[in-house]
Write a structure and sequence with these properties.
homodimer, mainly beta, 5-stranded antiparallel sheet, 1 helix, about 5% helix
């Protein structure tokens, strides 16, 4: 399995987020690289954000570590403590359970691209920092436990 | 935890490989980024290979997925099926249990740098493809089970 040909992977902009939370990620184009290559413990996705797009709603994971590597372009990392501009070669990481909601926002005019890696217990779920939503094994719910009608994508 | 300042991490070229298998990795300088940042399920290391250095002896893992991202310079990826030149932005991955021994060799005159990610069961061990050595929870052994005298580093 030599060098990965990213162009051979489909780019998907699907999301299970209920409206209107799906709108900011409409310009997020993901390649599910790890699963397609047979990785089972290590999550690995290649993501392109069009101008204006978000990587996700700002979130944290109860049971998964995450590590992000910027490949090209630039995006603003938004966290509890504020904002950081990320450019090609910059990295950021979030240990599981740390309630530091994070996402990238592409405020530039150009596409940006990054790789995101994850490992741990995906079923442990997590929460979104700025909206009334959590994610669980059963899908998306309000913080009071009431389910949203959409299905969380795998 | 905004952008990671890689310069703040110590670079180590230690290895537990018994001689003479330690010699090719003497010019490998690693930063154990993930562990230092509190990641527990996701392994993440930044590695610089000096001219001539190897990333490791050619190996495979029984229980760990691996994913490599080249950041700068170039190196030759050696696998069972042959060699592939990797440059900045190139990626490669190896699912756990795939007995496709792999390593990088820096045959250029300049340093190269890459990030390597892993997840799964580190205790499951694995084997080296070109030498009489395996790695286990008890350390390095000959393929007949006889231990080597050195200690496997964590």
């Amino acid at each position: 399995m030599p060098k990965i040909d990213l162009d051979a992977f489909a780019q998907l902009n699907s999301t299970g987020y209920p409206p209107p939370f799906d709108e900011p990620v409409a310009g997020r184009w993901q390649r599910r690289v790890g699963a397609r290559l047979g990785l089972t413990a290590l999550g690995a996705s290649h993501v392109v954000l069009k101008s204006g797009a978000w990587s996700s709603q700002r979130h944290w994971h109860a049971g998964e570590d995450e590590f992000l590597v910027m490949l090209s372009g630039e995006a603003v990392l938004v966290e509890n403590a504020g904002e950081t501009l990320l450019r090609a070669g910059d990295c950021a990481a979030w240990p599981m359970g740390l309630r530091n909601g994070h996402h990238l926002v592409n405020r530039s005019e150009e596409d940006c691209a990054f790789l995101c890696f994850s490992a741990g217990d995906r079923e442990a779920g997590g929460a979104y920092s700025d909206i009334d939503m959590i994610f669980t094994t059963e899908g998306y719910k309000h913080k009071d436990g009431t389910p949203y009608p959409t299905r969380r994508l795998r």
